Amino acid sequence: MDGSPSTIAKFLVPKIPFIFKTVLFHSLWLSSTSTKWDLRTELTIKIIREMLNGQPWSISKQQKGTLKDPGVKGRMWISRVTMPAPPEDDLRQALFKAIDDMKEGDETYTRPTLEPVEAEWTGYRANVAKDAPEPSISEEEKYQNLMKEVTSDVTILYFHGGAYYLMDPASHRQATSRYAHLTGGRACSVRYRLAPQNPFPAALLDALVSYLSLLYPPPGALHEPVKPSHIVFAGDSAGAHLCASLLQLLLQLHRSSPDRTPTVTFHGRDVELPLPAGLALNSPWLDITRALPSIENNAQYDYLPPPSKSADVKFPPCPLWPTDPPRTELYCDGSAMCHPLVSPLAAKSWAGSPPIFVVCGEEMLADEGKVFAQRAARQGVKVVWEQYEAMPHCFALMLEGLQGGRMCVASYCKFIRDVVREPESVKTEGYFVTAKKLERKPVDVEKLTELTDEEVARLMDEVKKRKILGLEGEGKAQPRL
């Protein structure tokens, strides 16, 4: 569903009785979530849930509806750039070798070509009105003006959410400009290739190109080389998934070259592949199979449709989906669903990782975040964990202005600042933030869940096998994250 006023009105008018009932039940404390949510939160989440649980649009129509550029106005600088594909094939071959080395069975995947990667430099624009138009100057001049307002070394490499088939950086400009403002830095938001037309590992290859382009600016780049210790991978939902996959890829390349930092040829130079300063993940989607218990158990607090409600829903056929030949997943070949670079939850080792921040609600993806954070912390990685009671997926983005959302963003940006400017100050710590009162209760990050690694692997493998056997049927709805 697109966000145009006419489309929203067409949806909301028939829902007036539903809206009235929601208000009434909340006011009379008859709703199961009245004690956890305020009225605005209840209305917002339940209306979004109604939208997502309606008759699905085709993948083509959904993509078209979410790829509309809303324009640039207000307190943000946006400088659009293109990161050229390197003429050498080293980067691509390094990715394929890592994928093959990490296989545990007969996983198959499509080998994408190297392509230019579009991105947006985002920064805060001070001393202008909230609706100030974008100035009519060159992209280079916009970048120069952006850099005049940067006050720290922080560079956020940002990957947007949208289940790998929706949205682009334009949809997240308000969020990334806010992150830039609160950290004093800048963000580089990547327009990676979308599935299903570009399945795994196309997006991961684009992410790798974008990271190396920050480190080693190709000819014509607007920016100077960025130190890896100044770069934080950040993202929400599927974008957080891409952050974790990119980090796991880099860790695998380091494991394959234990005696020295791995290198590749990039735009005519032999360059190293270092690790970034850290990861900042918001409601990460880490398991393509959606196999863990919270997917169903936490549905009451989320707006996303759980498998029990979406399993029999089919996307209307379109040029993008179902694919020819058919495949069971939008993002990847069915056989690869449990590959560690497809579902980072399947990665056994995060040892050697830089610090990681994970925040989520009491949402359907909560178990994935818990298992990931717990596993990394037990392996010696510094992990900062925050979970907000009764909050849905990406609540800080969906419920702007909510006090809990502001608190979440403040923690998110504090971690990004600290891991770049004072990395020694970052330590493993965890908190559960209560609903309404927003009390921060300490939790042990190494004891977030009773799910064992063996049980997680078994649950994921069972879903993979069911999908490959076709029990859910060709072309049925996939998670809309």
TrEMBL record:
Gene3D superfamilies: alpha/beta hydrolase. The active site is at S237. Keywords: Hydrolase. InterPro entries: AB_hydrolase_3, AB_hydrolase_fold, GDXG_lipolytic_enzyme, Lipase_GDXG_HIS_AS, Lipase_GDXG_put_SER_AS. This is Alpha/beta hydrolase fold-3 domain-containing protein. It comes from Coniosporium apollinis. It holds the Pfam family Abhydrolase_3. Residues 156-396 form the Alpha/beta hydrolase fold-3 domain. Belongs to the 'GDXG' lipolytic enzyme family.
